[in-house]
Fold Cl-channel protein.
Amino acid sequence: MPRPDPAEVFELSEEGQVRSPTHGQTHFASRYVDGSTIDWLREEAAERDRTNVQRSQFGVRGLLLPWFDASKMWFIVILTGLGIGLTGGWLDVLVKWLGDLREGHCSYGFFYNQVSCCSDVNSGEACDQWQTWGDFLVVESVLAQSLLHSFVYVSLAVAFALSAAVLVKSYAPYAFHTGIPEIKAILGGYVFTAFLSPWTLLIKALGLALAVASGLSLGKEGPLVHVSCCMAYFLSRFFKQFRNSEAQQRKLLAAAAAAGVSVAFGSPLGGVLFGLEELDTFANESEVMWRGFVASAVAAVALQWVNPFGTSKLVLFQVTSGSDTWRAFELIPWLTLAVIGGILGSLLIKLNVEIALYRRSSVLNEWPVLEVVGVSAITAAISYLVVFSRVQASELVANLFQECDANKIDYHGLCNPSAMWENVFLLVLTAAIKVLLTAWTFGMMIPAGIFLPTIAIGACLGRAVGLLTQGLHRAYPTAWIFLSCPPDPSVRCISPGFYAVIGASAMLGGVTRMTISLVVILFELTGALSHVLPIMISVMASKWIGDAFGKDGGIYAVWIAMRGYPWLPPVDFEDRGETGAHLMRAVERLVVIEDARNTIADLDTMLKDHDFHGFPVVHRHDFLGFVTRDKLRLAIAPLLLEESERSKRCVFSQHTSSNAEEQVDLSSLLEEAVLQLRKEVPKELVVSMFQKLNLRQIIFTTGGKLTGMVTKSDVVALLTCNFPHTASLSSGARRSWG
Amino acid sequence: MPRPDPAEVFELSEEGQVRSPTHGQTHFASRYVDGSTIDWLREEAAERDRTNVQRSQFGVRGLLLPWFDASKMWFIVILTGLGIGLTGGWLDVLVKWLGDLREGHCSYGFFYNQVSCCSDVNSGEACDQWQTWGDFLVVESVLAQSLLHSFVYVSLAVAFALSAAVLVKSYAPYAFHTGIPEIKAILGGYVFTAFLSPWTLLIKALGLALAVASGLSLGKEGPLVHVSCCMAYFLSRFFKQFRNSEAQQRKLLAAAAAAGVSVAFGSPLGGVLFGLEELDTFANESEVMWRGFVASAVAAVALQWVNPFGTSKLVLFQVTSGSDTWRAFELIPWLTLAVIGGILGSLLIKLNVEIALYRRSSVLNEWPVLEVVGVSAITAAISYLVVFSRVQASELVANLFQECDANKIDYHGLCNPSAMWENVFLLVLTAAIKVLLTAWTFGMMIPAGIFLPTIAIGACLGRAVGLLTQGLHRAYPTAWIFLSCPPDPSVRCISPGFYAVIGASAMLGGVTRMTISLVVILFELTGALSHVLPIMISVMASKWIGDAFGKDGGIYAVWIAMRGYPWLPPVDFEDRGETGAHLMRAVERLVVIEDARNTIADLDTMLKDHDFHGFPVVHRHDFLGFVTRDKLRLAIAPLLLEESERSKRCVFSQHTSSNAEEQVDLSSLLEEAVLQLRKEVPKELVVSMFQKLNLRQIIFTTGGKLTGMVTKSDVVALLTCNFPHTASLSSGARRSWG
C-alpha cells in the first residue's frame, strides 16, 4: 500500500477522516464480515499510520494523544481484569448456593448456602439451621426421605440444565461449549463478532452457573475465558481506536483470556503462560504479554477480594502433603499414571469426536435441549448412586487431593486401610463413568469446560494407584523397593493424596497436550511447590504418550479442525524436500486482473463469480500488486451505475498511458508492498512465514513475473490434512476465508 | 540454493559425502569463523536435506536412522542436565568448604565444612570439633585473636580471588564475567567457538568456586548457565550431526541454558521460562522448549540427589511467613520498594557501564589481575567490618528472608524492636556498599554473576522498609491505616522477611528487566506461593520505572551492545512511516557481481577488498541470486592458480551461452531461494522479519530488478542506536559479521 509521509497524512486528517487514505483504510478494515480473516499486515499498517499522525501533531497534543491512547488501553485491561475477577467470584457463590439447594435450604434465609448458613455453629456440633428437604417437609420414614431426596436432587439438576440449555438455544447459540477453540481462532485473525456479543456474555455467565450447579460433568474454566473475552470486547466497543482496528481488539482479547484463566484456576501466572503457550499470542509482541500479566494480576486480586470460598486464598485445592520429600521408587507408579493419562486422554478425545459427529448426523441435531435434559437426568441418577460423584466435582477433587490425617474427617472411608479394594474399585468406576459422561457432555448445547472433569478423572485414578502402592507398602514393608521409606511405620511414606495430583496432571497432559502452562496452573492450584518435579515429569510423559497415540494436538485443536476455523497450529512443519512450488496455486489456476485489459464490467463479473479475498494484478506476466476484494468492490460500485463507464478498461500502473478517456485509473487501490518469494523457497519456510508473520497470502514471482500464490487457507489445509474429520462440523457458510 | 530431489541426494551420498552437493553445503556451514554469524536458513535447509536423505532410505534403515538421530539428541540433553546438576551441587559443597576455611577448620578432618563437622553435635551445644584459626594456633589474647582472624579472613579471600583471576587470565580468557550476554548472542547465531571450549568449561567452574568463596560481590547464576552450555557443546562435538550443523548445536545450547538456570536457582520451571523470555529461543520451535523442559527437570533431580545443603529441598531461601494473607495498606511500602528498585537498578547499570568504560581506557586494562586483588582486598576488609556482609551473600539473603520467631536464633538482633534504627541504618549501608562493589566487580577478570548481589541489595532495602513499617505499626497500632491488622498485638501483622523478598524482586526487576520468568524464579526460590501477587506487582512496577529511567533493556542487553555482538533485541520496533527504502543500502552502494562480466581475477580482488558475508548477483539490473563469500572463495581458489583461467568471465545463469570457452560456469553457487521484498514494505515489518525468521539479509527488488539490500548488522545498528556506548568494548576484530 502507498505509505504517505506523515506530513501529508496530517494535512489530510485535518480535512476530514473520510477523505484521508489512511483512515479510509482503517474504515475498510473494520468492515470484515463474520467468517472472514483479518489482514494483520494491513491492520498493523493502519495502526502505524494512526499513531504517526498523532505523534506528528505539534506541541502538547503530540505528546498527550499517544498517552491518552495508552491510558484507554490500560483502562480496558484493568477493568476487564476487575470485571472477570468479580464475576468469577460471584459465579462461584451462585454455584455453591444452587448446588446446595439440591440437598436442602437454610431455615433462616433462603439465599444462604450450607456453609454460610452454618457459620455460627462450632465445628463438631450438628447444624440445625440447615434443613434437608426431608426435614423441611417433615418426612419421617427413612425410605420416603431418601426417595424424596433423590427425586429433588435429580429433578433440580434437570431443571438447572434445562434452563441453561433453553437460555443458550433461545438467546445466544454461540454461548454453548467451552469457547477456547473459537478464542484461539479469533486471536489468530478469524472474524466472529457474534461470538463476543453482550448477549453471549450474559447468557454464557448465567448458563454456566446453572450448568455447573446441575452436576453435569463439566467445568467452568473454558467458559470463563470466553466470558472474559466478551467483557473486553464489550468495553473496547466504546473506543474508536479499538472499534476501528481488529488487530488492536485482538491484543486486548489476549490479555482478557489470560485474566480468564487466572480467575478460573486462581492462578495468575498460569493465566499468562496459558496465553503464551496455548493461545500462542504473546510470542509476537512482548507488549501483549505485559498486558496479560497486568490483567491476570488484577483479576486475581479481585477474586481474592470477593473471597468466594471464605479461605482468603487463591489456592483452590490445597495439598497438605506431610513430607516434602519423595522417593525414587515412586517414579514407577507415577510413570504408570502418566502412561494411563496419555492413553486415556487420547481415548477421551477420540470418543468426544465420535459423539460430536454422531450428534451432528443423527436425530439429536434437531433436539439439542432434549439431549441436555436426558444427559443431565442420567448424570444426576448415576451421580446419586456412586458415592464419589454425588458431590460437586470440585469438592471431590479437593477431597481426593487431601492426605489422610487423624485430626480430620475421613472422606468416605478413603483412609480406612481395610477398605482398600472397595475404594480402588469405586474410584476406577467413578473415573470410567466420568470419562463417558464427559465425552458426551463436552459439545452439548450448554456452556461446558473440560478442565475440571479431566482433573476429576485423573484424581480418581491417581488416588486409586496411590492406595494400591500404599497397600503394597503395608503388605511388604521390608521389600527392597521400599528400603528408602522410613523404618518407623507410623511415619507416612506414601502420600496417596499427592498421587491424585499426579493423576490429574497426567490426565490433563493427555487431553490438552499443554506442557509448561499446565505445570504452572497445577502447582498454583495445589500449592505443591516442592513437588514440581514429579508434576513436570508426569505432564511430559503423558503428553509424549498422548502424541504417540493420536497426532491430533489436543482437544482444542481437534475442535478447531472439526469446525474448520482458519487457525494455524504452531506445529513444526517439516517438508520432505518440497518447495513453495509444490504448495502454491500456479498462475494458470489463479484469478488475476490484467492491467489495462479488464473492463469495469469484467471486474464486476469476477467479483460475483469468485469469493476470494483479493486478486493479483499483472501487466502481461509482470506482477504489479495486489487488490483486495473490499477495496475493489467499493471503488467500482459507483462506476457500475453508469453504462458508459462499464466498458472502460481499468489501469493500475503507468505502463499504458494512451487512450486516457477510455480508461479508469485504479492505481490507488494497488497494494505494492506485498511479500514476494521465489518458488524455490522451501515449503517449510513458507509455512513458518505464515505462522510467524500472520500473513494472509504470499505471492510467488520469478524475475518480476507472477508464478503463483499461496493463501492462509492452503497452509491450514496442509497442516490439518492428517485429521480425518476436518471441517466436519463447520456450517459451510464459513468457508470463504480463503 | 538448488533443492535436489531426495532420490538424487541419496545416490550422491552413496558415492561419498564430499561430492554430494547437500553434504558439501553442510561442510561449508561448519566452517564459520569466530566472529561471524550463521545463516539460519542455509543451516535449516542443510538439516532438512539430511533428514530427507535418512527418511528416504529403504526398509528398516529409513526408520531407524531418524530414531537414532533423535536418541543421540536426547542423550546429550539428558547428560547435560545430569552433568550440570551434579556440577552445580558439588560446586556448592566446594564453595561452602572454602568459605568456612576463612574462619577455621575441622579438627578431625580438614575436608569437612563447618556444618558437616558439627553434624554429630546436638543443637544448642557448642561444637568443639570446629576450630577457629585462633583456637588452632592457641592464641589467648582477644585482641591478637581478632587481628589473626581478620588477617586470615582477608588474606584467604585475596588468595582465592587471585587464583581465580590467574586461572582465567592464563588459561581461558573467555571464562570471565557472567557469560549470559555471549550465550544470548550465540543462540541468536553469533559464532564464538572459543567461548564454549572445554578449557573454558573447566576454568569457569573452578574459578567460579574460588570467586564465590572469596566473598566478592558476585553470584554463581550466570556463570553456571555458561558452564552448562560448555558441557552441551563439548558433548555435541562427539556427534557428526551436531558438529556439522551450527543450528542444531544452538538448539542444544538453548536446552542447556535452561538447565543451568534450573540448577542455579533450584528452579526447574524458572529455567524454562528464562529460556523463553530472556534468551528468546523457544519462541521459534516448541520442540526446543520441550528439550529445555526435560534438561531443566533432569538437572533439578540431579541437584536434589547431590543435596548440597542437606535439606533435600530445591527451595533455597525458604520463606517462613507466618500468615498467608497480606493487607491492602502494605501495597504502599511495596510500591515504594518497587520504585526504589527500578531507580537503583538503572543506576547500578549506568554505574557498571561507566566503570567498564573507565577500566577499558585506563591503566587497569593492563593489570586485570591486580585489579581483582585490590577489589577483593577492599571487599574483604569492608565485609569484615560491616556485620551483615561478613557471611556469604546467600546466607545473608536466607537470613533476611526469615521471619522473626521466638523459637529461632535472632540473626544479628534483627528482631530486636529497640534496635530498629541501628538495623535500618546498617541494612541501608550494606546495600549502598554492595551497589558500589557489585558495579565494580561485574566485569572484572573473574567469573561473576549479578543475580545474587542484586537479590542481596534488594533484600537489605526490603528488610529495612519492613522494619520501618513494623516500627510505625508498633508506634501507632490504632491508626486508621492499620485497621485491617488483627487487634491482638501478639499476632504479627507485618512480616519484614517478606518485605525483603519484595525488595529483592524489585531490585531484580530493575536490573534485569525480566518479568514472568523472574516471578517464577523468585517464587520457586522462596516457596512464597501465596504471595505471588505482591511479587508480580513489584516486578511489574520496578520494570516500568526502570524502563522509564533508562531505555537500555537491562544489564545483559547493555553488555551485548557494549561488546557489539550481532544480537537482535526482541523489542517492538515502531517506525514513523518509514519503509524498507529508508533502511536498505541502495543498489548504487552495494558491491554486486555482474553476470558474465566479472572475471575470476575481479572476483578475487573483490573478495580481498570487502569482507561482506555474501554478494548479490545481477544480470544488467535483473537480480539473479545471492552468492556467499565462503562458497565463492572455495570455488575460485583452484582457478586462481592457472593464469589462463584468471581472465575468464564468470557466468551464473543461462542468459549468455556464447563464447563458452572464455567463461566459467559458477551457476551452482547461486542461491536462488532468497527472500525478496519491495522497498515499499514498512520498516517495522522488515525489522520484525529479521527478528522472527532469523534472517541474515533481505534483498529488495522491484519488478525483478535489484534495488537494495538490508543485512542483520543494519538492523542491529538501528535497534541499538539509542545506546551511546555501542561496541565500545568490542575488540574491533569482531566487526565483520555484516
Summary: Confidence is low (pLDDT under 50) at residues 1-30, 732-738 of chain A.
